[in-house]
Design a protein that fits this description.
- 5 copies of one chain form a homopentamer.
- Chain A is an alpha/beta fold and 157 residues long.
- The first copy, chain A, contains 5 helices and 4 strands; from the N terminus they run βαβαβαβαα.
- Chain A has one domain: Rossmann fold.
- Chain A has a 4-stranded parallel β-sheet with strand order 2-1-3-4, sandwiched between helices.
- In chain A, helix 1 crosses helix 4 and helix 2 runs parallel beside helix 3.
- Chains in contact: A-B, A-E, B-C, C-D, D-E.
- Chains B and C meet through helix 1, strand 2, helix 2, helix 3 and helix 4 of B and helix 3, strand 4, helix 4 and helix 5 of C.
Chain lengths: 157, 157, 157, 157, 157
């Protein structure tokens, strides 16, 4: 039986980060042989955690990617915090990693730059999920290297 | 046996969002045949989470809608945050989705506009609950489309 | 065997809200026949949650009322938030409602007004607890009616 | 078998509150006959919660006192909040009271006054722990009396 | 069978704190005889908690060290808070200590000073982990002594 990687995103988001992650994961070695993808879409970021938990527990997913795009309002910032705590709890209750991939609309004023951030962050975290499952030594090599997703790496001090 | 959708709201709220959701769900295909509604009212938003958990566990509801209207005071904002974390935990402990449908009095100065927001948001989330149960592909099609409840869709970047 | 309603309050509080609730509940139909009261006092608001959980689990209480009075200092506000999250968790872990009845010293500068708020809020929430157990339709009738405890009802929009 | 009261403190703290609590508890009736003390020291306040849980579960302690002294930096305030939420969760997961006894360095500029606060608060809460176990009616008598630890009682309104 | 100490760090960090901890622990008596090390690297600080939980539960680690370096942005501060709450929950769910070793980029403007803080804090907390397992009396002796990691000890008041 193949491993499963869960991709969960929202209709609230203004860019299809889930599609980027799908494409990236389909390019990794072993797609369709070692692992397959399961994708679900929920209304908003506060719906992500339970959706991930369901895919982990009921579809037996080995890892999940949770995509969200909090808006500019102060209430959105609070929602992102609540969503994030939910994703943390979902990880601990399932003992399964869920990579939280959020792009905040406050990160830029420019839609094109936001798209670039979303594209890059989604692709990099899709690879991180793959590495966590199959090549953890790749992450181990990056320990303390100031690696970023959605911007240039900060590098080590 | 029919599925059950839980509707939980408060006496604190200043508009009957639960009634809007009831009406909307009764218009969906399969009402009274595939699914029925269970409704409970509690005093305030911090009472919503355990009420939803009880309906999910004891009435075997497949999904819940939790309606609340935090007031203008800073303490109300904090209560909303606490209520929201409770709803998050209730979802994870039951592995069942609860759509949080809150209208904040700070969203507008105008009662009529607040009523409009409450009406629209309640109706749209009632449909979301229906889709999550019976037509998840409708949400999948909306992934990253900037869809909103209570205001015009933001659309994709 | 009679139902039990738990009343938990603090020595930190500056008004005996628990006594108000006791009086109010003793006036409800069925007191001493359908239901009885169990009361415990703890030092401060962060001790309320576990005390409620113990009464629910060990004394088999059907519902609890938790009374607290956060002071004026910023640290008090944070304590109230932590206490509130604890009460939320206690509800979810026991699947039993706990009505949080807090009066914040910042709600008024005037001790007499604070006493009035505390009196009214305690009595109204005692009745809410009674209704939740025995007359839930009373709450259902108040859905979206802008009902308050400790001040005049806001009414519907 | 004797009851056990857990005393947990930190090396981060700048005053030995645990020692004050030990002394106070040793003066209570029944020490060494009805109850004994178990003491553990951890590095910082965020280590208190799991240490209390271990003593409650593995040493069978009936109640715990958790002593901490958050510093003046904003990050210290956040750590105290996180530590406090941990202590709340530890209480609920063990259904056992843990009295949180924190002195914040921001409570005074004067080291002597901070020592006085720490001394008084530790002693008073040690007695509270004793009362919770053996003389709960003492706390019941203080309901709503504005009792404080570390400063003069505020008294009732 | 040897005890295991878990070391978990991130690729986001800009200094290899995990390596410092490894070196320090290898210098402690009993390394390779009484205890061995298990190390994992994850992308960011919000991935630490579940990684620690997995090592504790699946590798049977007796204690964990979690290293992270939150950046300067306000969102980083919030992430650190969420990560910290996750580590708190992971400790309580496993009843196992996890020492949280975070260096905040806001602690200094100077990379060299940040490296010094990171070096010192990692080494001191590695020793704390060792003491917690094998020499708890060392911590007991330091109760209330104002001991710090990453800066000079504050000392007692």
């Amino acid at each position: 039986m193949m491993d499963k990687i869960a991709i969960v995103d929202t209709t609230f988001a203004r860019f299809d980060m889930g599609a980027v992650a799908e494409d990236e994961l389909k390019r990794q070695p072993g797609f369709g042989r070692k692992f397959e993808l399961v994708r679900t879409t929920v209304p908003g970021i506060k719906d992500l955690a339970v959706a991930c938990k369901r895919l982990i527990e009921r579809e037996n997913c080995s890892i999940a990617l949770a995509f969200g795009m909090p808006g500019r309002a102060p209430l959105d910032r609070l929602s992102a915090h609540e969503a994030s705590l939910g994703l943390m709890a979902a990880q601990l209750l399932t003992t399964t990693p869920i990579l939280q991939v959020f792009v905040h609309e406050t990160e830029s004023e420019d839609p094109q730059e936001l798209r670039n951030i979303a594209q890059h962050r989604s692709a990099r975290h899709a690879v991180n999920a793959y590495w966590m499952l199959y090549e953890p030594e790749r992450l181990r090599e990056g320990a303390g290297r100031g690696i970023r997703q959605g911007s240039a790496d900060a590098g080590p001090w």
